[in-house]
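Work Package 4 report. The design task specified in the project plan requires that, given a folded chain encoded as structure tokens, an amino acid be chosen for each position. We show below one input record used in the internal validation round.
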């Protein structure tokens, strides 16, 4: 059983994408705190449905229409994204707007330490992940008609403002470290020196790898994608080396050499070589920003949980991280000079 009316979806699917047979089954994927995602079985094979949450939503959040537009622009370039099938903006069909895309099969990992991957293959996983991110940042977004996919001006200035607004709209209590970040971040925004398509949530569990790990078959979960500063994406990935291992993407405390995982310095060098950069700025400000953004996202989950429309059964566990993330974010801010 799922929360989607299979009969209604089947009727719409046959009309909107006639090459697909009627729906036989629907299974919700585990995880996903934002836009719920489902495997939809048809006689023609499995496809994937991604929808907005049911119920009232924060302004500008859960823009699945933007995801669909970006997938439609990227797919013809050869960049690894699932092939989009159809977009439905009529909430009457299943209760919320949604889109359909192809089901991409391959290896998907949640633990950055890659315990299930042979040691000799782990470096290749990270190198392929970095190579794919660099390839995204080198795409000519204007040639794809995506000039208006992000607002003009400094990316971090508008993002700090956006996530402050989102946090305030979902705020349920006052957290001292978050209040300090809201004051400090906009006063210390770094200059933007490059502009590209950015994924916004580029991490290992949003990638589907080929079995030999020499290729990413698909980058998924584009909800936070925009046009902005590519350092935002790389810093979000690099932050994993600073976060403690917790069964998720964090790598701090791991003997990287013993486990066959590249160091952060090696990751930086590979990314710089591929993108033609000589170096990257100090990353502590970017870590503080990315942690602040995560707090804003989880605060939204917390508000939806209180409203009864959180999309994941793990939502309650996820929101418990807010205090820890706030402390970590302010620690990174202090490393970047806050409070001096």
């Amino acid at each position: 059983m799922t929360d989607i009316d299979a009969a209604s979806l089947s009727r719409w699917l046959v009309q909107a994408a006639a090459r697909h047979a009627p729906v036989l089954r629907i299974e919700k994927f585990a995880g996903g705190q934002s836009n719920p995602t489902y495997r939809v079985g048809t006689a023609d094979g499995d496809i994937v449905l991604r929808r907005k949450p049911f119920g009232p939503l924060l302004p500008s959040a859960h823009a699945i229409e933007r995801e669909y537009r970006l997938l439609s622009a990227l797919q013809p370039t050869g960049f690894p994204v699932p092939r989009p099938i159809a977009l439905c903006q009529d909430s009457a069909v299943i209760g919320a707007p949604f889109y359909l895309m192809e089901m991409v099969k391959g290896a998907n990992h949640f633990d950055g330490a890659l315990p299930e991957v042979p040691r000799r293959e782990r470096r290749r996983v990270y190198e392929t992940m970095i190579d794919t991110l660099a390839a995204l940042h080198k795409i000519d977004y204007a040639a794809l008609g995506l000039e208006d996919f992000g607002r003009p001006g400094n990316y971090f200035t508008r993002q700090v403002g956006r996530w402050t607004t989102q946090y305030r709209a979902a705020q349920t209590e006052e957290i001292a470290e978050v209040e300090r970040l809201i004051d400090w971040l906009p006063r210390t925004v770094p200059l933007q020196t490059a502009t590209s398509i950015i994924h916004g949530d580029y991490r290992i569990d949003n990638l589907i790898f080929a079995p030999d790990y020499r290729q990413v078959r698909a980058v998924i979960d584009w909800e936070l994608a925009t046009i902005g500063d590519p350092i935002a994406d790389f810093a979000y990935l690099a932050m994993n080396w600073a976060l403690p291992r917790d069964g998720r993407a964090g790598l701090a405390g791991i003997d990287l050499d013993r486990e066959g995982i590249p160091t952060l310095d090696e990751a930086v060098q590979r990314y710089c070589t591929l993108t033609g950069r000589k170096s990257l700025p100090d990353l502590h400000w970017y870590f503080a920003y990315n942690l602040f953004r995560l707090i804003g996202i989880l605060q939204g989950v917390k508000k939806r949980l209180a409203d009864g429309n959180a999309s994941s059964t793990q939502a309650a566990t996820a929101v418990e991280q807010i205090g820890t993330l706030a402390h970590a974010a302010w620690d990174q801010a202090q490393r970047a000079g806050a409070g001096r």
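Strands lie at 23-28, 37-42, 45-51, 84-88, 98-102, 196-198, 207-209, 216-219, 226-228. Validation will be extended to a larger panel in the next phase.
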